[in-house]
Amino acid sequence: xxxxxxxxxxxxxxxxxxxxxxxxxxxxxxxxxxxxxxxxxxxxxxxxxxxxxxxxxxxxxxxxxxxxxxxxxxxxxxxxxxxxxxxxxxxxxxxxxxxxxxxxxxxxxxxxxxxxxxxxxxxxxxxxxxxxxxxxxxxxxxxxxxxxxxxxxxxxxxxxxxxxxxxxxxxxxxxxxxxxxxxxxxxxxxxxxxxxxxxxxxxxxxxxxxxxxxxxxxxxxxxxxxxxxxxxxxxxxxxxxxxxxxxxxxxxxxxxxxxxxxxxxxxxxxxxxxxxxxxxxxxxxxxxxxxxxxxxxxxxxxxxxxxxxxxxxxxxxxxxxxxxxxxxxxxxxxxxxxxxxxxxxxxxxxxxxxxxxxxxxxxxxxxxxxxxxxxxxxxxxxx
Length: 383
Ligand SMILES: NC(=O)c1ccc[n+]([C@@H]2O[C@H](COP(=O)([O-])OP(=O)(O)OC[C@H]3O[C@@H](n4cnc5c(N)ncnc54)[C@H](OP(=O)(O)O)[C@@H]3O)[C@@H](O)[C@H]2O)c1
Ligand code: SF4
Ligand code: SF4
Known about the structure:
By secondary structure, this protein is an alpha/beta fold. It is 43% helix and 15% strand. The chain has helices at 35-47, 63-73, 95-109, 124-132, 135-144, 159-167, 188-197, 219-226, 234-243, 258-270, 278-292, 314-326, 331-340, 355-359, 366-378; strands at residues 3-5, 12-14, 16-19, 25-26, 29-33, 52-54, 82-87, 114-122, 148-155, 173-177, 201-205, 250-253. The strands form 3 sheets. An 8-stranded parallel barrel has the order 3-6-7-8-9-10-11-12, surrounded by 6 helices. Strands 1-2 form a two-stranded antiparallel ribbon. The protein is globular, with a radius of gyration of 21 Å. The model has no long low-confidence stretch (mean pLDDT 92). It binds NADP nicotinamide-adenine-dinucleotide phosphate and iron/sulfur cluster (2 copies).
């Protein structure tokens, strides 16, 4: 395992972190963690040198934190890891809630401090609310009294807001979604470079897009991978692409079995930044472009249709909707649409004024497509 210093925090973390949002469960029930298998995974992860464990208030419907608390209590393991958890931004209604949630999380985790504490999934409306309620003073207090070691935030909105938040506080680190399909969305590559240049550690989440980039590739994609001089699994290609960036401090993977853990740990022991050849980068770009050909709405995200008078974020909705066709799976897009988007940006706000269609150079029937996208993305898909 290799280690890197986490931004302004005075500790080093393993370059592979354990995401505790996808632990093994019983009967497909998210709230029933299979504790025997999850403990085995966790202890093996520590044996392999992983020291960064990422959880959050809502993971596994609250049971991820309680499970981790119990598991790390054994044999002094708590002292061997950097524990990260997150304030549930959506649940905060008054300044008192900051301490109430943090203290509850400390109890669940059976510890007197959380090493790395994040404001969870910031987007513009939650950031504005938290800021107005005094979240930055709360973070200062919690660091001063030792309940948290350092502060960061996780992020799913767009680049200008990301930069605003980076500049608003003396953060030690941030957490962004980053993988070869998402280089230009959310914080993206520019955000990664921006945060790192300001001295923040950068934790990457969803490096395999929740597992989609690791699944057996469709034949036209596999034919591309087969052309590579060195043969690798789809997961290895995707993880190497993220670790190739020297700005990445730690990549989180929601590993849920031992073979995934072993493959990813092996890679984390050997991979070097800036080591992909130009041919390998070009090949990954080709794979990305092929995957993008599977889209349903030919939106180029040019933004000519914006601003919509009703506030609808048209290109972002089409990008999320297109993911259903790129990966043949609605679960991830449903989660992104319903959890990470501001209510004011949703397609349901469309008044059918027609202004966007007149402006769209791709002649997309935006109003009908938005209606369809909203129907598909709002519906909870079956597991
Ligand atoms: N703060 C936030 O807003 C936020 C949002 C999302 C995630 N997170 C955190 O970030 C962590 C990482 O995100 P993620 O779990 O989405 O990561 P990810 O690496 O994109 O996806 C994890 C999934 O990839 C598959 N996988 C991992 N390694 C593999 C391998 N070697 N071979 C084949 N498949 C492999 C597994 O899927 P299968 O189920 O197919 O086996 C696993 O569940 C989460 O666990 C969570 O802690 C935070
Ligand atoms: S038709 Fe709907 S999405 Fe398009 S500009 Fe009008 S309100 Fe916005
Ligand atoms: S104008 Fe058309 S192509 Fe451009 S962002 Fe809007 S919907 Fe997409």
